[in-house]
Specification:
There is one protein chain. The protein is of the alpha/beta class. Helices cover 44% and strands 16% of the residues. It is built from 14 helices and eleven strands. β3, α8 and β4 form a beta-alpha-beta unit. The protein starts with a helix and ends in a 7-residue tail after the last helix. The protein binds ligand G3I. Ligand G3I binds next to loops.
């Protein structure tokens, strides 16, 4: 223990010094600093970029211990026709991950978003029984596939993503509401199906806007509390954490994370980015962003149950924000040329400085 603390202290002193900022290449990669605190660090990646752009792939290999497929593990990409599964694109990430000893967060088996559903799912209304069959089949065949090809890499799944609306009700705009709109009943079904397919894989519920008090947080908390009480196989909660330009309510988020941790759930930060207004000028905008990245990373190091800090993209070149949220952008920690922004350095300092306290 003494040796480990001394190592960490040396790392912290080394990285805290101003000279470090200029010698980033010489300092340990973020994955090493995060791992020293028991935290997996990584990002969502575009599989085609891993094979197209050598600098993109090199950064992923060098700085990340975990990756999330931004699209290719979703139903739209995997199930082009009813009863037909195509894992060709998805398995390219598994190949890259196994070769580079990267873990993969499976994302995501159940999502209502039409952009993630295959066209055949939208062509007609399905009965409750048909939907149950379609969903059970999709969950189990997909998990079983990666249990074989992704052994040693795919270690967890976002089984269900964003099933609640902002009022904390089951989304009525979801095709899966045709099965039930009772969230406990629905999640019990899908998590049990997932666990049957691979009893070893860690199963997460993934959501956004649950990091501050409100109806959505209350609904998700009460639902997961009921699932844990009923011994449903749910192991963790993913906080997406799409932030900016407003800042996090840090004390509230800490309290909320501790409540979920007290249920025995592992916490993953799954999709962090901090969007800036296009009108915000440099260098202030990037300094503000660096401070936001640092405070969330430090929060994760201070909560024992927080085991992963992953961003949603890592270069401003590929971020989903500009095309989805006009007027916002520059949300990641590398610029469009994959050069580190202040947020890259602030992440390093946060993971090297934040000695994990023993709080839950
Ligand atoms: O790759 C195909 C291409 O072959 C095809 O020609 C083209 C036209 O259909 O589509 C391409 O796929 C696009 C895919 O991104 C890959 O770029 C899809 O159309 C597009 O809908 C998809 O958008 C993704 C979206 O989820 C829906 O799956 C975004 O990249 C991704 O950032 C976004 O991520 C979500 C998380 O999963 C859940 N949390 C919110 C987050 C942001 O919306």
């Amino acid at each position: 223990m003494q040796k480990r603390l001394l190592t960490l202290l040396a790392l912290a002193l080394l990285l805290a010094s101003p000279v470090m900022e200029s010698a980033t290449a010489a300092s340990p990669p973020i994955k090493t600093l995060a791992k020293a605190r028991g935290i997996l660090f990584g990002s969502a990646v575009e599989i085609r970029e891993l094979y197209r752009d050598a600098a993109y792939a090199k950064f992923v290999r060098g700085e990340f211990s975990v990756v999330t497929p931004e699209y290719e593990f979703k139903m739209k990409a995997i199930a082009p026709a009813r009863g037909k599964l195509d894992f060709k694109d998805a398995d390219r990430l598994v190949t890259f991950a196994l070769k580079n000893r990267l873990l993969i967060r499976g994302h995501t088996l159940v999502w209502h978003n039409p952009d993630a559903l295959p066209e055949w799912m939208k062509e007609r209304k399905f009965t409750r029984e048909e939907l149950r069959g379609i969903l059970k089949n999709h969950i189990q065949r997909t998990i079983k596939h990666f249990r074989k090809t992704g052994r040693g890499s795919v270690f967890c799944w976002d089984v269900a993503n964003e099933i609640f609306d902002s009022d904390g009700r089951f989304r009525t705009d979801s095709v899966w509401a045709g099965i039930t709109t009772n969230p406990v009943e629905f999640l019990t079904l899908v998590f049990r199906w997932a666990h049957e397919a691979d009893p070893k894989i860690k199963l997460f519920y993934n959501e956004y806007d649950i990091e501050s008090p409100g109806k959505k947080f209350e609904a998700v908390y009460k639902t997961l509390q009921a699932l844990r009480k009923a011994r449903v196989p749910i192991h963790g909660i993913g906080f997406q954490m799409h932030h900016g330009p407003d800042r996090l309510n840090l004390p509230a988020t800490r309290a909320i994370m501790k409540k979920f941790a007290a249920l025995g759930l592992t916490i993953h930060i799954t999709e962090y980015d901090f969007a800036l207004r296009d009108s915000e000028r440099l260098p202030d905008a990037f300094e503000r962003q660096a401070s936001a990245y640092s405070e969330l990373a430090t929060l994760c190091t201070s909560i024992k149950a927080c085991k992963a800090f992953t961003t949603w993209g890592f270069t401003d070149r590929d971020s989903w924000i500009p095309e989805t949220k006009p007027g916002l952008g520059r949300a990641t920690f590398l610029d469009g040329n994959l050069a580190p922004k202040p947020a890259y350095y602030s992440l390093k300092r946060a993971f090297s400085a934040g000695f994990k306290s023993q709080s839950k």
